Amino acid sequence: MGERASRRPAAGSPPRARARVRDLGVVLGDLPTGPHNAVTDVPGVLVGHTTVDDGAELHTGVTAVVPSQLGPQRWTLPAAVYRGNGYGKLVGSTQVDELGVLESPVVLTATLSVFRAADAVLTYLMGRRPDAVSLNPLVGETNDGHLSDIRRRPVTEQHVLDAITGAAGGPVAEGCVGAGTGTTALGYKGGIGTSSRTVRAGGEPVTVGALTQSNFGGVLTVRGCRCPPTS
What's the longest Cα–Cα distance across the chain? Predict the structure, then answer.
């Protein structure tokens, strides 16, 4: 069966109609969200996905977070890396730690596809900066081997380039899409999630956004109620 690959649902495309947790009455904290409750509420931040799904053995993909400010007038942005644990393949993190700057989109994919994805990001950066002799792609991952044939490493350069060039603002497709296609979390199907909050800093409103590729164990707890998966 052929792959349904190189699908380019830009972040601005209307996501599939499905309830988000806030729509179900579960509200975390008392800070207001941004207009889309997504990382794209942060000015200049775009998101794109490419999903690789053959309906059988491959359920994986690429998600790209693209700062639109990176361009001819400004090739770096302030950045930092925080590790909750060290069990991951975060290509490019050493330079971010050392210099405190980001000079590429942040790309997420499956564990064994990280290195091909990093090479693809390098292709993208070299095309934008033809005179550069040092470039630092930043690519992270989670392991989707439970639901996808991870050893086939199906993510190609074109999948990565499509996710980056197809990135857009507005609502972000969530769940079983892009790098979250084959992930699991808390005993349930995982995926891509995003959110934003508006805070005040120095008397001015500031938007803080997050995007997650959820893939971890544990027990889901909602409002203090443990929610084990049904068998």
Answer: 57
Tens digit of each residue's pLDDT (9 = 90 or more) over 90-101: 999 999 999 999
Structure confidence by residue, pLDDT tens digits, 17-42: 678 888 888 888 899 999 999 999 99
DSSP letters of the chain?
---EEEE--BTTSPPPS---GGGGT---SSPPP-TTSSGGGSTTEEEEEEEEE-SSS-EEEEEEEEETT-BTTB--EE-----S-S-S--BTHHHHHHH-EE-S-EEEEEGGGHHHHHHHHHHHHHHH-TT-S----EEEEE--TTTS-GGG----HHHHHHHHHT-BSSS---BSSGGGTT-EETTEE-EEEEEEEEEEETTEEEEEEEEEEE-B-S--EETTEE-PPP-
pLDDT tens digit string along 213-231? 999 988 888 878 888 766 5
As beta bridge partners, residue 59 has 53
CB 173 within 8 A of CB 48: no
Find out whether 106 and 93 touch, Cβ atoms under 8 Å.
no
